[in-house]
Amino acid sequence: MNFQLSDEQEMLRKMVRDFAKKDVEPTAAERDEEERFDRGIFNKMAELGLTGIPWPEEYGGIGADYVSYVIAVEELSRLCASTGVTLSAHISLCSWPIFTYGNEEQKKNFLTRLATGEALGAYALSEPGAGSDAASMRTVAKKDGDDYILNGSKVWITNGGVADIYLVFAKTDVDAKHKGVSAFIVEKGTEGFTFGKKEKKLGIRSSPTTELIFENCRVPKENMLGAEGDGFKIAMTTLDGGRNGIAAQALGIAQGALDAAVGYAKEREQFGKPIAHNQGISFKLADMATDIEAARLLTYQAAWLESNGLPYGKQSAMSKLFAGDAAMRITVEAVQVFGGYGYTKDYPVERYMRDAKITQIYEGTNEIQRLVIGRMLTKP
Ligand code: CAA
Ligand code: FAD
In CA terms, which of 90, 195, 234, 305 is 20 to 30 Å from 67? Predict the structure, then answer.
């Protein structure tokens, strides 16, 4: 067993860390406060090749592995979780299914634009009445000659409004539950496709979350990903990898919170000594660091399995579950280490705590991760 990262993976980590420090962190608090997405940051990620990390060079990627990808999401999220999820949704949720299920033309047309960062991607599964129970969606796609006509709405869509390419799931057979779902690539600007409410959120506030509305939206049949009825399988296998992207986001948030807490505990003096010299504080830091190492091992392991063509769905659900819960515990404790100052916007730990919460909710709540893991353990 070899736990050592390769030179390429270490170099990528350093590159993303430097980029995040220089170009992402300085505006993180301000973007959070103003709920402002910055396309310029995404464009800079594109210049560095981050928008196409795992895709072959022939499709505009840099041909690295999934471990490199989770390292990038981790390093971005360490300073700005919104930027981390922008990249995670773009790569795991929109680009991955096109790379995996797309025909050559779809890959050339859509994946290349996503990989080079010319286009930003999004994934639209959830609906007002269909969150955890994704198969109960009501958006429909009715065949009409060589096109499909989409009607319905999607909610909570990350990168909504700012993305250029959307992977949209809709029922081509309304009577069949999950077997009636199909997947469509829909471009921003398509007639009948508009954006509704933008959510006002607790955390990841510089990542836009928006409603999508389809009113007689005509999509050519060439934009169907896979065959009719393949949509639910595409959605689920996409989430298998996507969940590990969220684990990486949670890991980065947790590491950022620990970094801040360690720095503060060494500097802040009470009773004539740094607060870190109290066992009550140093034990907290020790527990936080141990949780982080465990989360990192699970996350890198799931990515390694995927890179090596081995099953990774269970490990990915586990990494998301563990890292999300750990990030919540760790960020709450980081605020505690900062005392009253941690409760203010003068320090970043309150933002980390608000950002951590979402990692227990999206890409399947952590109850759903337990359901997925439990079903795998007990299936006949
Ligand atoms: N891989 C391949 N196939 C899968 C699968 C997987 N991981 N999971 C399920 N399937 C298949 C099953 O084998 C079954 O196929 P057959 O009919 O051929 O046997 C079919 O799908 C239906 O499976 P289930 O009966 O298990 O389906 P279900 O309706 O009980 O739901 C669920 C299962 C796991 C709860 C699923 O609905 C789910 O994942 N819900 C959570 C939704 C979710 O995660 N949404 C995330 C939205 S994206 C997001 O949030 C973005 C962001 O963070 C940025
Ligand atoms: P519900 O499904 O109504 O669940 C409510 C509660 O009941 C939860 O605690 C849940 O765990 C629990 N519960 C439900 N069923 C069970 C069960 N069987 N067993 C035990 N407990 C259960 N979706 C997309 O498609 N694309 C996106 O890009 C996207 N981005 C998002 C960004 C944000 C900021 C948010 C908040 C959500 C996003 N989502 C996205 C949607 C997200 O995936 C859903 O919110 C999530 O899957 C939960 O669905 P729900 O909110 O409808 O909760």
Answer: 234
- Residues 284 and 314 grouped into a single domain: yes
Please tell me if the CB atom of residue 238 comes closer than 6 angstroms to any atom of ligand 2.
Answer: no
* Within a domain: 184: yes
Mean pLDDT, all residues of the chain: 98
Q: Are 373 and 238 found together in one domain? A: yes
- Ligand in nearest proximity to the CA of 245: 1
Residue 2 lies in a domain: no
Q: CB of 155 closer than 6 A to ligand 2?
A: no
Cα–Cα distance, 169 to 195 (Å, whole number): 16
Residue 1 inside a domain? The answer is no
Q: Look at residue 203 and tell me whether its pLDDT is greater than 90.
A: yes
| Per-residue pLDDT band at 178 (split at 50, 70, 90) | very high
Catalytic residue list contains 363 = yes
CA dihedral 334, 318, 160, 238 (to 10 degrees): 160
Quick one: 279 and 368 in the same domain?
yes
Task: Name residue 213's beta-bridge partners.
Answer: 153, 194
Whole-number Å distance between alpha carbons of 322 and 38: 30
From CA 225, how far away is CA 229, in angstroms rounded?
10
347 in contact with ligand 1, CB cutoff 6 A: no
* Residue of 132, 162, 236 best suited for mutating to test ligand 1, as the one with most atoms within 8 Å of CB: 236
Residue entry with tokens 């909610």: 155
Q: At what angle do helices 81-88 and 66-77 cross, to 10 degrees?
A: 150
**Residue ending a domain, choose from 231, 247, 282:** 231
Domain range for 223 is 122-231
Residue listed under structure tokens 């869509």: 157
Of 98, 120, 142, the residue that ends a domain is 120
Tokens encoding 5: 């990262």
Return the residue whose CA atom lies nearest to atom 18 of ligand 2. 368
Question: How many structural domains is the chain composed of?
Answer: 3
| Candidate from 156, 159, 238, 372 with most ligand 2 atoms within 8 A of CB, to mutate | 156
**pLDDT per position as a tens digit, 14-61:** 999 999 999 999 999 999 999 999 999 999 999 999 999 999 999 999
Query: Cβ neighbours of residue 366 under 8 Å, at least 6 residues apart?
Result: 320, 321, 324, 325, 360
